[in-house]
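User: Batch of two.

Assistant: Item 1 of 2:
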Amino acid sequence: MSESTTSKEKILKKVRSALIHKSNQEIGDVDNDSEIFASSDEPLEIQFAQNFSALNGKFVFCENETEFIESFDFIIKDNNWKNIFCLEPQIKELLKKGNINFSDIESNFLNTDIGLTLCECLIARTGSVMITSKQASGRRLPVYANFHMVIAYASQLVNNVKDGLKLIREKYNGQLPSMISTISGPSRTADIEKTLVQGAHGPKEIFVFLIDDTNNSQ
């Protein structure tokens, strides 16, 4: 018998013995509330911006909704982007204020280049955007357009995924949406000849416009 087989048998015997002769030691209550990761002294918006940017996301801070309109208008004109699609009533009102052309007609969906959506919350620790199927933009728009533009508010910042799920439970009175997902930067793959390709399974770029709603200036 080889040395490796002997070692394997020894381990298996110990496992069998442990299963037969169970320990009498009581296991204490599991602590599900304490934080696993060390907390940061940085404000949530700074944490999110750093972690989101590290994932190749594009972060734009706006002091108010007026500044969002100006920033968004500048970006689309600077890049000569067309075919903007939006289904969120709140964002559509902002675009109308800025005289920015967009479509919300289903027949134009397949020609979409820019998809504008809201989100449920922003996860600061991971730099992720949490979305659900309950949103007006649904399941398709966040993954279909070449460029995904997320409009979020400072009041939507949470520390971690657990906090985000708690927020969603409270928002929908415990009736969780059929789809809850987090977006952590543009999709990437190196499956083909180990060459990293960005946007292979979704948008090529993701922008987050974070609007400060902690003050009343608009």
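Item 2 of 2:
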Amino acid sequence: MNYRHGYHAGNFADVLKHTALGELLRLLTAKDKKLFVLDTHAGAGGYDLGGEQARRTAEAETGIVRLAAAPRAGMPAPVAHYLAAVAAYDRKFGSSGGAWRHYPGSPRFVRAALRPGDRFVACELHADEALALKREFAGDRAVEVRQADGYKTLKALLPPPERRGLMLIDPPFEAADEFERVLRALRQGVRRFATGCYAVWYPIKDAQGEAFARAMAAFRPLTLQLALPANDTGKLSACALAVVNPPWRFEEAMREALPWIAQNLGSGVTARVHAPPASAPVPASPA
């Protein structure tokens, strides 16, 4: 696996994923019960937007940089919370205004939401990324970092003793069978822990992605989509986050936040929130 998220940190896909993740965590931690969180593909934990990787692609320019410049008047609460979390992370590095230089990965959004008694396991298989992740949380007992296959870890840790959980599945989609692996892991997860909340990010760029979206419909997810104007550069221009068992009021929050995000990311950007049908069977899986 060669994927390094530093090239894509803060792009439009991160805006979608992390705005939704922040809102999921806010709603799930509103209840006075312990929460288990698993990030199956956690990455390095944090990224330098002024570093060589981010500057080479400049993807943050059409994502977090553009959104940060949007007017605050009328900004939906989930977006305001997302931007506040990015700003708070940047301040950890001594920033004092001006353009943000440091962007938090999903583990940082999770860590900021954890309460005493909550449990967080962050998995990363890539050796260099896992080492960076361990350094990011060195000495932090609230975060368990594992250099491990996130799919296998998901299977091993479910159901959690907390009986409440959020599983973020956000693979790089480098492997030819990645879509199949995600579906298999999700079937196994739902079979073991049917009431858990599962958030699955995926790219929309070819027939394989469209077939995956159709297969995901069996889980009755709330699906969030964000798309830039089509391009011929080969860069990703559309993605989705499918949320199985979203908490109450999450859909309402996303229906307010996503159109606002699309409007403020630029001309031609579109957003869609697709709710599941009233009832449909969840596919079973062999143990």
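The CA atoms of residues 36 and 165 lie 4 Å apart.
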